[in-house]
Amino acid sequence: MKKSLFVKTAVALALAAPLLASAESQTVVGNGSATARLDFRVVVPRVLLLQVGSLTSVDLVEFDLGTNEPGTGVAVGRTGGAAVPVRVLGNNGPITLAVTNSGDLNTGTAGETIPWTEIAVTSTSVSGSPIPHPSATFNGNTVLTTTNGKVTNSQANWSFTYSNTLTVPAGTYGGANINNGRVTYTASML
């Protein structure tokens, strides 16, 4: 009989042990209240997002002088006139935004070039801190300030114009990843 009671008690304890280990509980007999606690944790990964232009492809910023005389200093806006949307999101401190190019815009013919300083850009803030263009030469960087401690969440529109201060030979300078027409923007967060 003692052996049977011992076995039954051992089985009951073995079955109850997982229940006792898996949750906090308190049993009160009679008057009073029972309490149980839960611990919560949210794990937020480090995130860095950079968007320059549309979400689907590499945008082309084109200037067509049309009937404008070259070299007059009369600036020419982007064909179609649309600004380029820019978004920077980061949650771990200041962000460095850099731009690089592989050289002056050209036609593919030696000596026919337009320097990047002929392309002007203005930034209009949509939300958060302003997002200045990194460099007038399209080759440099700038540090974005955080808007809330370590968080940067800013949107802007960049508007580009061709300054048209140089008289250059007729042709198409740059293009869709040809003749040094592509610039690359890079966001870095420590």
In words, what does this structure look like?
The protein is mostly beta strands and 190 residues long. The protein has one domain: Immunoglobulin-like (Sandwich), CATH 2.60.40. 11% of the residues lie in helices and 30% in strands. It contains 1 helix and 10 strands. Strands 1, 2, 3, 7 and 9 form a 5-stranded antiparallel β-sheet that branches. The chain has a 3-stranded antiparallel β-sheet with strand order 8-4-10, with no helix packed on it. Strands 5-6 form a two-stranded antiparallel ribbon. The chain is elongated and about 105 Å long. The termini are far apart. The mean pLDDT is 90.
Give me some keywords for this one.
11% helix, five-stranded antiparallel beta sheet, single chain, Immunoglobulin-like, elongated, 190 residues, 1 helix
